[in-house]
Amino acid sequence: MLNLDEYQAILLDLDGTVYREEHPLPGAVEFVRLLNASGRKYACLSNSTLSPEHVAARLGRMGIAADATHIYTAAAAAVDYVLQRHGPWPRIFNLATEGVQEMLSGRCHWVHSADERCDAIIVGTPTNVYATEERQRIALMLLRNGAELVGTCADRVFPSPRGLEFGAGALCAYLGYAANVTPVFCGKPQEVFFHNLCQRLGVEAAGCLLIGDNIESDIVGGRRVGMRTILTLSGITEQRDLERLPPEHRPDAVFRDLAELVEKTVGWSRAAGAGKSE
């Protein structure tokens, strides 16, 4: 049995663990409901370039009740990074999403042209509304003039209903090569993502349990900063993939999905009045 009382916070990957496209995966609705009822600290994680508010709205449409305060995305991590790195009111060029625009509104100076001084360029996927061909050319000139290249995440590709799409990492590689600069990435599995999240939650990484479906971004990323990890087989990783993993990349436990995890978990009742599932 898994005892949640052993952990300061539960970190829950979204895509492939909680949902696939627009549908909740088995056990997801109940697992998040139990987290809310227990009163314990938790966060839902995503390499999305959207804001936590947009992700919360998407989850709500699936019947999953996690508000924005419980969601941490790669876009939010990039915003945290540029504010920490460049101080209050940095000069930013947005090559990402409306979510980045919303989160930094009133907290930075927006750069609009290639001849302005720029501290950092935040990059999302090539299909984002701010990543037009003209804005990519502006970003190239800003990078050659000294701006920092900040990727929301290092994903080469990501799945969509149309098939594989170019990820933020691919656009960063394209711009970095052209400008001869090295990008900094802020999403999973980068350590900055997990450290900033733990700082937000007020917990130590070693006291966290990370649940996810991706060996590289979830399991390896979490283990690297000292977290305990659980792999679900509801996403991209299959049972046969585990046989080829070196010991340092293996999760502490494996479950079919969140439904099985709920069945085999105790410790839901830490908060007064919360239910308990065994």
Describe the overall structure:
The protein is 35% helix and 22% strand. Residues 271-278 have low confidence and may be disordered. It has helices at 28-38, 52-61, 74-86, 98-104, 133-144, 168-179, 191-201, 215-224, 239-242, 258-263, and strands at 2-3, 9-13, 19-20, 23-24, 41-46, 71-73, 91-95, 109-110, 120-123, 148-151, 157-160, 163-166, 184-185, 208-212, 228-232, 253-255, 265-266. The chain is globular, with a radius of gyration of 19 Å. The protein starts with a strand and ends in a 12-residue tail after the last strand. With 278 residues, the protein is an alpha/beta fold. The strands form 5 sheets. It has a 6-stranded parallel β-sheet with strand order 6-5-2-14-15-16. The chain has 2 domains: 2-47 and 188-266, HAD superfamily/HAD-like (Rossmann fold, 3-Layer(aba) Sandwich), CATH 3.40.50; 86-185, HAD superfamily/HAD-like (Rossmann fold).
Gist of the model:
Helices cover 35% and strands 22% of the residues.
Overall body shape? globular
Query: Got a strand count?
Result: 17
Largest sheet: 6 strands, parallel
Strand content: 15-25%
* Average residue pLDDT: 93
User: What radius of gyration results from the CA coordinates?
Assistant: 19 Å
CATH topology of the largest domain: Rossmann fold
Strand order of the largest sheet: 6-5-2-14-15-16
Name of the CATH homologous superfamily of the largest domain: HAD superfamily/HAD-like
Structurally, the number of domains stands at 2
Could you say what the CATH architecture of the largest domain is? 3-Layer(aba) Sandwich
Structural class assignment = alpha/beta
